[in-house]
Predict the 3D structure of the following.
Amino acid sequence: MIKAILSVNEKTIPLKDFMQEMLANIIQGFLNSTKGVPENIENIKIEISL
């Protein structure tokens, strides 16, 4: 089961299952084409400051 959590300004934004899966698949696709990322990914954490 895929679980993705989105937080903006430290507020958690609720995501439906479809959106969680879509977000996770986009990030996983990005990582699969990036050198140095392990083949077996168990979890991913991304933090972006604007």
Observations:
- The longest helix spans residues 17-32.
- The beta strands are 6-8, 11-13.
- The two ends are 30 Å apart (CA to CA).
- DSSP finds one helix and two strands in the chain.
